[in-house]
Amino acid sequence: MAVDRTAPPIQIIGLGKKFGELEVLKGIDMQVNAGEVVCVIGPSGSGKSTLLRCVNRLEEPTSGRILIEGVDMTDPDVDIDRLRTRIGMVFQHFNLFPHLTVLDNLTIAQRKVLKRSKHEAREIAVANLERVGLIDKIDEYPNRLSGGQQQRVAIARALSMKPDMMLFDEPTSALDPELIGEVLDVMRRLAQDGMTMMVVTHEMGFAREVADRVVFMDGGVIVEEGPPKDVLSNPKHERTRRFLSMIL
CA-based diameter of the chain, in Å? Predict the structure, then answer.
C-alpha cells in the first residue's frame, strides 16, 4: 500500500451511510486539500460526526468511496490499521486510558503499532507534550487533569503518531466554557503549522478565524460550503441562515 503524498489527503466520493432504515449520509462529495482546515457545522443529527467517523472507517460506509492520500479506504483489501496511522483522531470525550500515565498514553500506540523503541517513543511524546503546554503533567494520570488538559493530552497522543492529517469530532463540546480556549489555542497553532484538519465543531468563532473552508450540513447532505466569510456572514441558503441565527 503506497500512499501518494501529492494526492489530496481526503477525497470523499458519493458517500452514503445507513443505520437500518435511517439514511444518515446521502451521497456526500467533498475534498480536503493539503494544509487546509475544513470546519463542518450543522445541527445535531445532520450527519457531521458520522461523516468524520467514516473517514477513518470507525463507521463502515454503506456506499461510496473514501480516498486517503490516493489510497481507497473502503477497499476490502486495504491495510486499514496502517492507513489509520496517517490520520490522527481527537474525540469529544478524550478516550484516554485511565490506568495509564500521560506518558504511557502517548507511547503505547507508538510502540505497539509503529514498533518504535521505548526511547524514541518517549522523545516524541515529550516533544508533543511541550507542543500542547503539558510537559509538567507527563507522570500524572488522566483523572488528575482538567477536561481541557485531558483533551490537550489527547491531541498530543494523536500527534505522536506523526499523522499527515487530523480529524476533530467536536473536541470542545464536553468542556466547561472556561477550558475551551486552551484547546482551541492548540488547534490554532496546528493550523498555523500547516496541519491538514477536518473539524466538526459548534465553535463559530474558531471556524471564522481558522478555517479555510466551512461546510454546512443538514439532513445528511452538504447544503453549502465556502470561505468562512461567505458561509457564516452571507449564507446563500435559507436553511444555513436559520441555523446561524439560532446559534450566533
Answer: 55
